[in-house]
Structure prediction request, 379 residues.
Amino acid sequence: SAVGIYALNIPTCATWNENGTTVSGNQNGSIGYDLGSLNYPVSIFIDNDDILYVCDRDNSRILKLYPNSSTAVIVAGNGTAGNESNQLRGPKGVAVDQYGAIIVADSDNYRIQKFLPNSTIGITLASNTSYNPLGQMRDLHIDVNNNIYVTDSDNNQVVKYIPYSSIGIVLAGGGPSGSGLDQLFSPFGNFMDANNSLYVADSGNHRVLKYLPGSLNGTIVAGNGTAGSSLYQLNFPRSIIVDNNGYIYVADGSNNRVVKWTTNYAAGGVCIMGCTGTTGTAANQMRGPRDLKFDRHGNIFVTDQSNQRIQKYTIQLPTSPCPSSKRTASRPSSNRILIAKILLGTMAAFMLCSAVVAIVLVCYVAVRDAQTTTTSTTT
Prediction:
């Protein structure tokens, strides 16, 4: 199954090695057609067994790579573009559901295909029809309930398909393209977090939007809507993931980098990969990052698309607790001091009242005993 956000335990101050390791494709950036090469890879998927799946777009196939293996096996598509049940054309999204079936956004065939375990014959789950418009899909995800989420850039929308339904439910966009908070312009990646909040890489608007459950109006959480290379800007963002802290990681396509945005969105992003400002095939460079995913350990895998490779960036865990997890040593605020005084005063009053009650009880017992003694003597 997928590596869920709820399974991650990434410290707030974690960092990643700036040098990536090539785990699929050719390190030198060359196109290839053998099982060790790629031809414009797009989306990737990593399961809880660290198995990597790659949409090898222009080779019309889905590849599966086991850990520490550089040679893949074909699990969907036969390497030739076509619309037969055993073929794909321009696949751009892949995920594995809870039953081990491989789900593919067969984009240039305008259909979603399902491949059962050990089968290379696809079953069509949804396709482009008059009652279910389905354009060019840029991304595909599955949640724990096997709901499928696809980004349809032709129709400027993100759509959800529940199990056994071939009609999509629009979660974001869906109208004409635009820059309003209820609009999208050529969206690419999508991500659903553990609270069912939807994130969309609104690529043509150079921003990332967040949608609360049930809302068609988004909030800008990364980028400012204008293309640029400052850490407040994005330039055709292609994909996003969110960690257990709510931090957003963006494949900033035309800036050839990955940036991290905390929940303090106004502070801008921090470049964590591809931060040289140049493109190339060096281990610390990228060329057109297209997708990114966490594995269960917190390592980040990036589709370095125009370099025809998948790069792995190893997480570097802190050796001591993160500053944000420590109690603050700063001077308490005036409100905190006031609250403390009120609490202390209340406790003091309670103790005083308790003492008074105790004294009254002692006096009462003494008087009662004296009366009892007198009565006993009289009788």
User: Anything to note?
Assistant: The CA atoms of residues 21 and 312 lie 5 Å apart. The first strand starts at residue 15 and ends at 16. The chain has two domains: 15-316, 334-378. The chain has a mean pLDDT of 89.
